[in-house]
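Action item from last meeting closed. Structure (186 res):
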């Protein structure tokens, strides 16, 4: 069995059409002019494109699956990242995370237990567009200080079921975070 962390072994990830800069995967076309959630030019996998190729291969309608924006290696783990520049629901994010994880596991042949050990999910959001209640932020910062787990957007149930870690990061903090600085580029 191929090592699922070695993405170069899988044609869906080795296709040059899916390799883009992190900046391009963070593009928000709904704004005029378009806005970017990061300026980093590190090469990653555009998972939206992987989803398109995957669904075409199995002749599945594109509306049947959602996908995260970017996939990359971070140290010795797989990181799935979703950029949200506007309003969203936790249900939308959970659907994207789970659907992407299922496609990844099908492509690579790894089991859920293998994936869970070596994966993380990062949500990058724009705090100017997505209002967060002060009590939610207070609970988040308290849990951060005590190294506890707390999800502002109720993504906690993804943790330990599907991902070894779930992180929510404000757009302004992302580029300086370890989740952006430690990317292993393609």
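Sequence:
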């Amino acid at each position: 069995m191929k090592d699922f962390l070695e993405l170069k072994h899988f044609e869906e990830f080795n296709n040059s059409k899916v390799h883009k800069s992190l900046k391009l995967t963070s593009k928000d076309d709904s704004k005029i002019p378009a806005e970017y959630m990061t300026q980093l030019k590190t090469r990653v996998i555009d998972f939206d494109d992987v989803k398109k190729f995957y669904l075409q291969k199995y002749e599945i309608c594109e509306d049947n699956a959602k996908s995260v924006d970017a996939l990359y290696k971070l140290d010795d783990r797989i990181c799935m990242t979703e950029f949200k520049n506007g309003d969203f629901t936790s249900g939308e994010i959970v659907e994207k995370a789970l659907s992407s994880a299922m496609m990844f596991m099908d492509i690579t042949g790894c089991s859920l237990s293998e994936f869970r050990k070596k994966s993380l999910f990062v949500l990058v959001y724009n705090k100017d567009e997505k209002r967060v209640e002060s009590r939610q932020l207070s609970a988040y910062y308290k849990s951060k200080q005590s190294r506890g787990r707390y999800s502002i957007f109720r993504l906690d149930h993804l943790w330990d079921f599907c991902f070894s870690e779930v992180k929510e990061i404000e757009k302004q903090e992302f580029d300086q975070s370890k989740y952006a600085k430690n990317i292993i580029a393609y």
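Note appended to the action item: The chain has a mean pLDDT of 89.
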